[in-house]
């Protein structure tokens, strides 16, 4: 990957960015658009040229790099079925011309299973047909969560109505915080094996949450088997809020960055499970609000916080282990469902980078990623993903430490380094995403640098998925930068 070079390669001897892209835009447009657009053109060229900068890798690192091509995918609109097919056709054509390998799209639980055990995939068929027409591969996300509680969500997609109706009567099927508030983002891990959910009409049997997820994915496989794996080549298994294997500790409706969030283990099912493991109920008065900082709490204060005591360590180990078991149940089940289909599996881990530099790593611990001197959640999750031949997808590839503000004590760069090292050690496949949308050249360059750095550590970097497909991405003012990024990733 390295830096964008004049010859089109990444060799150290040719580190200047290909100038003709920006210059060509300048000459071609000035001849017929006039002075009014001149400033816009100049901004475009400056953006392209800004990719020319020294790599963040040191000279000692550069000889370790074993760069390999990394295919680029682009995330579709969160509700891709609502996008006019004519617009998608234009966007897909531009992606194909840029050399993009494929697209990622969400298959929403509530849009498909409107009644228990009844599945209708027809709304997704035109999009898949279009992807096939343009020879774009598809990363299919099995989305068992709500859309609308994550930064950048532009639409609202609820859980299925038969689930939300049940939640009104039985709120403990959802995650609960210590303040008595439920999270509507996804079902609690505690109901994975509770037989309380309705089956198809006419059936008297009830289903567990795991059985509902299994039946959804089985139906998907049966309906789209003819497209696997030459069109649908990857299944991202929905593992929790935003599809990620974590607790919904920082829902947008309750939280503001960089608050550490709140524990999500106070529904009756998780409370009972954790009590049976630790011998005591989950702790109370952990935070005063979702927006606390670690040192504003007794639990996470760096001098004598409870998290550093034997009691605190025991609880957070149990909290992590319950999340881990959910991940294992889901990946084990998905590997059986899609066995023989030829598709690969992937799962997403959230890049919770704020307060990474604080000794407690409170934001991560509250979300389930407990890390201490003796234990590291990411290492255990890498082993889990390796066990089920699942790509370890990690977010925040575009983020720099310098862009996060001192009060957040954030380090997205340390997180990428940490996770990629564990993935390399376990020989698990690695994939990346950006955390938030961007349209600046510096973020593209950061991704290139991060991919090089991850590969230098021995991580098998299998794909990068860019968030998100819209008209700005393929606009004449931005397309040259995006196109060049895709070219560099493919080398």
UniProtKB/TrEMBL annotation:
**Any Pfam family matching the protein:** Glyco_hydro_14
> Which enzyme class, named as a word?
hydrolase
Question: Which reactions appear under catalytic activity for this entry?
Answer: Hydrolysis of (1->4)-alpha-D-glucosidic linkages in polysaccharides so as to remove successive maltose units from the non-reducing ends of the chains
Cite the entry's keywords alphabetically: Carbohydrate metabolism, Glycosidase, Hydrolase, Polysaccharide degradation
- UniProt GO BP: polysaccharide catabolic process
For this protein, the record's InterPro entries field holds: GH, Glyco_hydro_14, Glyco_hydro_14_CS
E.C. number(s) listed in UniProt = 3.2.1.2
Spell out the molecular function terms from Gene Ontology.
Answer: beta-amylase activity
Family listed: Belongs to the glycosyl hydrolase 14 family.
What name does UniProt use for this protein?
A: Beta-amylase
